Amino acid sequence: MHYPSEYHLAAVMRILSFLKKAPSRGLIFIKLGHLDVKDYTNADWAGNITNRFSTSGYFTFIGSNLVTWVSKKHNEVA
Using an 8 Å Cβ cutoff, are 35 and 62 in contact? Predict the structure, then answer.
């Protein structure tokens, strides 16, 4: 996730191509009786003593399934 390359993109494209050709397979979401959407965020303001850059991120669940996540180190000093 931090250093994606052409190899990673090729792997993702191969997986998506497979899923497109086999629609009966798809992605599996476990049904646990609820589809609540939960978002969590966090920020570490100038937590790195070496360079004082901040880090922030978030992730999202639908039910108990992780669907998105992001982590970013900011370019500005806090």
Answer: yes
The pTM (predicted TM-score) of the whole model is: 0.46
Helix (H, G, I), strand (E, B) or coil at 27: coil
Distance CA 70, CA 28 (A): 22
Q: Which two tokens stand for residue 16?
A: 């998506």
Residue 61 bridge partners (DSSP): 38, 66
What pLDDT, in 10s, does the model give residues 59-72?
A: 998 877 788 888 88
Lookup: tokens for 61: 């669940």
> Buried (b) or exposed (e) across 19-48, using 16+ Cβ within 10 A?
eeeeeeeeeeeeeeeeeeeeeeeeeeeeee
Residue 27's pLDDT is: 67
